[in-house]
Amino acid sequence: MYFDTHTHLDDARFNADRTEIINKIYASGVTLAVNIGADMKSSRAGVLLAKEHPYIYAAVGIHPHDVENLTEQDMAELSLLAKEPKVVAIGEIGLDYYQNDVPRDMQKKWFRRQIELARALNLPYIVHDRDAHGDTMAVIQEVGYFRGVMHCFSGSVEMMQELVSLGFYISFAGPVTFKNGKKAKEVAACVPMERLLIETDSPYLTPEPYRGERNDSSMVRYVAKEIAELKNMKEEEVARITMENGRRFFAI
Ligand code: NI
After folding, report:
1. Among 113, 52, 47, 32, which residue's Cα sits nearest to residue 83?
2. Ligand 1 centroid, distance to 6 Cα (angstroms)
3. Cα 206 to Cα 213: distance, rounded to the nearest angstrom
4. Distance (Å, whole) CA 11 – CA 29
5. pLDDT at 99
6. pLDDT at residue 107 in the model
7. pTM for this prediction
8. Widest CA span in the chain
9. Average pLDDT estimate for 116-135
10. Cα(200)–Cα(226) distance, rounded to whole angstroms?
11. How close is the Cα of 76 to the center of ligand 1, in Å?
12. 221 CA to middle of ligand 1, Å?
């Protein structure tokens, strides 16, 4: 049984067959999944999906690509959504300096504010960090609340070790299976097993051998398989431990 800790089931790419896919995922052995918010619309949609489906939980939050028009009123609504019974985290939040027009100061401001929201509600948070490692660490240190996970981690072994020492979890998605994913493989091989999570980030980041096709949570097994090979473990063992870790992290 697998826990996909990061998926976007509300994404428009699932509009034609969402219920079918949700049933297929569960039948494939993925018995827990967290739908991740990226803007107000997807945060609301995630809460509804979690109400409809027993094995789906939700995180609510605003992705760095979507903070430009965020208002205090939105923050107030986000805070209300976060109090819904099956909302287990704030996310995804963070910094994205890759082809992103949103000013960096604005991204940092809302990243900080959303970590503070997580702290105020006693929830963990999910970090998106793309090409922004230094500033991501700086904001996290500045706020000083460390109940977080680095989603689809792309930093160095040193950065991973620093995060783990602060109390962070480290999560891997499809890129760890890519042939050119040397750095992610190197980090995954040495993440302490008790701090590791797995995810798909579906419909994006499809793992090998299905790279290029639409991703869904049933493919989280390929991430587990790759990590098992890197750590010289059995795939079922990786599935079992990441399930336990995910339940502990999200308090499910
Ligand atoms: Ni995502």
Report:
1. 47
2. 6
3. 7
4. 22
5. 87
6. 98
7. 0.97
8. 49
9. 98
10. 13
11. 22
12. 18
Q: How far is the CA of 64 from the centre of ligand 1 (A)?
A: 11
173 contacts 151 by C-beta, under 8 angstroms: yes
| Closest-CA residue to 250 (of 102, 16, 142, 90) | 90
CA of 35 from ligand 1 middle (Å) equals 9
Q: Copy the structure tokens of residue 223.
A: 């991430």
DSSP sequence for 82-117: HTSTTEEEEEEEEEE-SS--S-HHHHHHHHHHHHHH
Length of the chain as a residue count: 252
Q: What is the pLDDT of residues 26-49, one digit of tens each?
A: 999 999 999 999 999 999 999 999
Give the model's pLDDT for residue 131: 97
Ligand 1 centre to CA of 240 (Å) is 23
| 8-35 mean pLDDT | 97
Distance CA 55, CA 242 (A): 16
- The model's pLDDT over 230-244, given as tens digits with 9 standing for 90+, comes to 999 999 999 999 999
Query: What pLDDT band is residue 215 in, cutting at 50, 70 and 90?
Result: very high
Is 90 exceeded by the pLDDT of residue 84?
yes
Distance of alpha carbon 1 from alpha carbon 31, whole angstroms: 6
Burial class (CB in 10 A: 0-12, 13-18, 19+), 103: exposed
Which residue from 170, 239, 250 is spatially nearest to 30, judged by alpha carbons? Answer: 239
Q: Above 90 in pLDDT, residue 159?
A: yes
C-alpha of 77 from chain center: 21
10 CA to centre of ligand 1 in angstroms: 11
